[in-house]
Write a structure and sequence with these properties.
- The complex is a heterodimer of chains A (359) and B (198).
- In chain A, 39% of the residues are buried.
- The two termini of chain A are 23 Å apart.
- Chain A has 12 helices and 15 strands.
- With 359 residues, chain A is of the alpha/beta class.
- Chain A has 2 domains: 174 residues, 3-Layer(aba) Sandwich (Rossmann fold), CATH 3.40.50.300; 176 residues, RecF/RecN/SMC, N-terminal domain (Glutathione S-transferase Yfyf (Class Pi), Chain A, domain 2, Up-down Bundle).
- Classes of the chains: A alpha/beta (359), B alpha/beta (198).
């Protein structure tokens, strides 16, 4: 897919902007706080119906504005689609070709785009849920049923936790069976993805970093890697007294862990900040390749200031790894941009200043 | 508040009626013939007196016919009970003409987050009926939501102990529907729940 044009009104600091994006590379150049990331965010929001920076819609609407509107034209295979996002009163409504999308799940996988940001470092060294989020995203990108299963799992988990608080013990066998059923599906999917992912990611990381013994992403399911449905049911029933003590379900895919492991040690504990950054970049690059391998389609890449901290050699090698995309939209600081024009062909440059973009 | 405002506000509390529809209805009632309004008012006023819950299955019935016509029908298959969430589901299933057994209305689904457990639903009577009426098959027709699934599974746990067959309504692409127009999740789910052709 590829963005052809973008029109924004009332979104963050962007009052009114309309721009052509029909190129393989689109570059937003500007100082900090001018609106470069807001432009990337608007493109991301058109694909997913949500932001990668906040869950609060009110933060996305410009100061003093009642609503914001983003319209993009997207080329997907041979068709051109118009996607509209309307943000008002705390909610986001999405339209594709004037038809309203009732569930964000419908948007998943429709317009694949992958965002690279500084916050991605949490996928390596953040809370366990951040690491799960990365792998869950990787799966949701090509398998909409995975998101469906995740949602169902979390809904049932919430019900079970409430039943624990209310001491509704007669419901436990029912919830245990439901959690075991959906939970094992989720676990199997994660395990398969981690295995496939580890065929891509370490090599990719080696090529960019020059490191011979790259880390892998080790998946550690809370129920153990070989548990059957009956074993999980038994485990849940055996640990009921603990669950009742904590008033929450203490095992399951919501407690699964992913660890960036080198040898037998947790690499995130010893890696330098630069290495952590590079791992997070390589994770995203591998995510894009993984998507391409799974679907045969090429995603759009959104790169938010992430090349900043790489030295020249790593930067070049990293860009080479990013070849599997149909379009890349990058942000750069003014002093950073020089030298990229040789690396990128088919480029549209925009200077971003005070919420406006000029060619 | 004027009487008109009050009417609009009351109407907009009805399910599926927003503020806009409520005022359309209210203005319509202002201009339509008085006899219609009187009849409508009288019907609304007396409906809860005349229509009551069937003491056996929990669906709606006339006050002078309790148990309801389905529960008392002599030609129905008394060996199967179809369990539904709401009384209106009985009408929907009955309209198909495809089911000849009995019904049982739970009046909701198990959802601790909403403060509803089995004790809040019409379960005790269900077990008594299954035992008393010699039921051999229970069909669970709860909605395909997480809570509908929980309720169905809970029923199957307690009913299977009695040695009774339990089944659930199938879900997937609507009959006569076009795959092209079904949403992606429905299609993906249908693929997962596909059946072997004999």
């Amino acid at each position: 897919m590829k963005f052809l044009s973008l029109t924004i009104s009332g979104f963050r600091n962007i009052d009114d902007v309309s721009m052509n994006l029909d190129a393989r590379h689109v570059i937003f150049i500007g100082e900090n706080g001018q609106g470069k990331t807001n432009l990337l965010e608007s493109l991301y929001l058109s694909c997913y119906g949500s932001s990668f920076r906040t869950r609060r819609t009110s933060q996305l609407i410009g100061f003093g504005k009642e609503r914001a509107k983003i319209t993009v034209r997207i080329q997907e295979q041979d068709a051109v689609h118009t996607v509209e996002a309307l943000l008002q009163q705390g909610s986001i409504s999405m339209n594709i070709d004037k038809k309203e999308i009732s569930d964000r799940m419908e948007l998943m996988n429709r317009f694949p785009c992958i965002v690279f940001t500084h916050e991605d470092i949490a996928f390596v060294k953040g809370a366990p849920q951040e690491k799960r989020r990365f792998f869950d995203q990787t799966m949701c990108l090509h398998d909409p049923l995975f998101l469906y299963d995740l949602r169902r799992y979390h809904r049932i988990l919430k019900q079970r936790n409430q039943a624990l608080k209310d001491q509704r013990l007669s419901l436990m066998p029912t919830y245990d069976e439901q959690l075991a059923h959906i939970g094992i599906t989720i676990q199997q999917q994660r395990s398969k993805t981690a295995e496939e992912f580890n065929k891509l990611f370490p090599e990719l990381f080696s090529r960019v970093s020059g490191m011979d013994d790259p880390p892998i992403m080790d998946y550690r399911p809370s129920w153990g890697s070989t548990a059957t449905r009956d074993e999980v049911k038994k485990k849940l029933s055996d640990t009921l007294s603990r669950d009742l003590r904590f008033l929450t379900t203490t095992s399951g895919p919501h407690r699964d862990r992913f660890i960036c492991k080198k040898g037998s040690a947790d690499f995130s504990q010893t890696a330098s900040t630069g290495q952590l950054r590079l791992i997070s970049l390589a994770l995203r690059a591998a995510q894009a390749t993984y998507y391409k391998n799974k679907t045969g389609r090429l995603p759009v890449l959104l790169l938010d200031d992430v090349l900043l901290e790489l030295d020249h050699g790593k930067r070049q090698r990293f860009i080479q790894e990013l070849s599997g995309y149909e379009q890349a939209v990058c942000t750069f600081l003014p002093e950073e941009v020089y030298g990229h024009e040789q690396q990128f062909s088919d480029v549209l440059n925009y200077t971003v200043s005070k919420g406006n973009a000029y060619q | 508040m004027s009487l008109l405002d009050e009417l609009i506000q009351s109407l907009s509390r009805l399910p599926g009626v927003g503020k806009k529809s409520a005022s359309r209805i209210a203005y319509h009632l202002l201009t339509t013939d008085q006899e219609f309004n009187t009849r409508l008012g009288r019907t609304i006023h007396s409906i809860r007196h005349h229509i009551i819950r069937c003491r056996t299955c929990g669906s709606f019935t006339q006050r002078d016919q309790d148990p309801c016509s389905i529960c008392t029908a002599v030609n129905r298959d008394r060996s199967s009970i179809c369990i539904v969430e709401h009384p209106q589901d009985v009408i929907t299933l009955e309209a198909t003409g495809a089911y000849q057994g009995l019904f049982h209305v739970l009046d909701g689904v198990i959802s601790p987050l909403d403060g509803i457990g089995p004790e809040q639903l019409n379960f005790n009577k269900l077990l008594a009926r299954i035992k008393d009426e010699g039921v051999t098959e229970v069909i669970v027709a709860t909605n395909p939501t997480e809570e509908g699934d929980t309720t169905a599974l809970y029923i199957s746990h307690i009913v299977k102990e009695l040695g009774i067959k339990v089944s659930r309504l199938a879900s997937g692409i609507p009959v006569g529907g076009d795959i092209e127009y079904a949403d992606r999740i429905t299609i993906a789910r249908s693929l997962r729940g596909r059946t072997i052709l004999d």
